[in-house]
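Team,

Forwarding the record for the chain on the shared tracking sheet. I've put the sequence and predicted structure together so nobody has to dig through attachments.
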Amino acid sequence: MALTPPTPPAFEERDRRELLRIARASIREHFLTGMLPLGTPHRQALLEPCGAVVQIHRPDSGLCGQALELAPTDPIFLTIEKLAVAATERAEIAPDEIPSIKISIALLSPIAATSDPTTLVPGLHGVVVTRGPRRGICLPDATRDGAALLDDACAHAAMQPGAWRDERVEVALFAALLFSEG
């Protein structure tokens, strides 16, 4: 029996803009001082835990770093601070590149196990496949059908294409609210 597919978290436009501002300020502050910015937002939505992905893009070469938190315990603003710095470190961004990078954020719903992976809606749902210690994750992508997204998640977990059909492989879905600068 398939569980109800997840829906994206609801965040107002001003909350999304504030999270992008927090991400950029965190990157800048970390480069300058090695610390994260002080302060707490006043908006209630930013004080709740929420899974997220932060991606860093260079203008000339596209995606160059990302960081992910699927099961957060911290408020979303703290999660975004940490992920922005981690994604920038993975991208090996130099301080003089900070003004030119583009930041993308995906806010994630809680993960929901499914026994029917075909309920995946391309462009709305991301997927997590797990077998033992192996785990592969793909964000929602409207350019690929559900089977291709599931196969890509399997590849990220070093599993064969189609492994998601094996009853020993756990499949879970999540929804994402995607937004970026510019």
